[in-house]
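Standup notes
- DV: blocked on the single-chain target, sequence here:
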Amino acid sequence: MTRNPSNGAPVSRRSLLRLGATAGLLLPSAGGMTLMLSGCGSDDDQVNADGSLSGSYMTASGMTLSFVETMVAKERGFFAEHGLNLDIKGGQGTATAIQAVLGGSADLTRANGINAIIAVANEDAPFVSIASVRQKSQFEVVSLPDDPIRNPAQLAGRTCGIVSTGGATENLLDVMLINAGIDPKSVKRPVTGVGTAAYELARRGEVDAWVCVNTDRATIQKEIGEVVFFSTDEYAPMPSDSYNTSLKMVESDSDMPVRFLAGVLKAIDYASKEENWGQVIDDLRKYNPEADPEQARAELPLLVESWLAAGPENALQMNEQTWLSGQESLVKAKLVNSAAPIEKLIYPDYLARAREL
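- DV (later): unblocked, structure below
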């Protein structure tokens, strides 16, 4: 139990979270810009005639395979089983999704652990992570086999592509370099984006390596050519993608997030079984008709692996030590000004209750 520094009285988890509430704040976006965020919208449950609750969830970026577990939960009726009518919206970047939750236009979203920590620790954002979707990093450092980069130290004085300026991949690159004793300024970092374009840039000698999602690396290996790669977890362990909500939601006593997580748990169990992948892809294509079925099937094993990396019984768990050590690395890299209490970063109560349903 934390103590109130003013009077020594005990402070509950919710009370400590409440201390972070602000009427407006500046939140850094992935592109290095800042956004003014207003206070959250209404926290009243939207109760339907049948007794179910309505809620909204915004993805971090579009309607891609990465977010398919929520699509499966809705289309297979797992949310409905728990009395939740969920509206799923495609986001346009992590900063926009966080803004939507803090502004009240979405109840839940998803953000990389780095973005969540920076928002809370640097800006005192009333924003809290409630479950970890991925139990391992989706990011890898990739290079060509004729000039392989096998660890961050080998990047000194060289060029490493990143997905976006100021985003999670650049932050991870800085942390890995600092942990390896390398000056981050010694490494050039052009934006190589997502997809397979970075491979061609490497072939032309424009980058020595690049940071990308593991599904892009798998596509390159399958369709273009061999590469050498290592996970960012090896040199910069961080909490990966997490579900998030606002402090106002926590204070409201709504169990809507509990119902959401209960539905997602069932969806992950269902979508992790290969015999269901045809239906999973059909559910994805309902939200994204342009999704390539063959590519989705090729990428699903990596997605399932990230969901279940801590074991099927630990799906959605939040590892407190990973959040603490990850934040320490961000402080060391001067990406976070000072560490926030763990109670302001994560709120595991919803997941504990969801497992009981």
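- Follow-up: The two ends are 27 Å apart (CA to CA).
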